[in-house]
Amino acid sequence: MRPRPVEVVKALAALQPLYNKDNIEIVTEDGTRVRGLVKSMKTTQALTKPSVKIQRPDGEVVKITFDIITEIVDHNPAESKL
After folding, report:
1. Is-contact 52 74, C-beta < 8 A?
2. H helices of the chain, where?
3. What is the DSSP letter of 76?
4. In whole angstroms, what is the distance from residue 53 CA to residue 77 CA?
């Protein structure tokens, strides 16, 4: 059974605090994993699907539409509170 895509609203809520953060991994419906820096999010442009762009360590920018995202993983260490 294939994982279900994350709802657009949930994907946006999960990605917004990660904007411009490195070491973020997105998993798509077909099992593709893209890890890197969240570069941009397009959510409200007419005639386009909401999407996120991830810049991989090799410099390649990968565009992923929200409707195929199944998981968003933040690989950054949790910030310690003093």
Report:
1. no
2. 8-15
3. S
4. 22
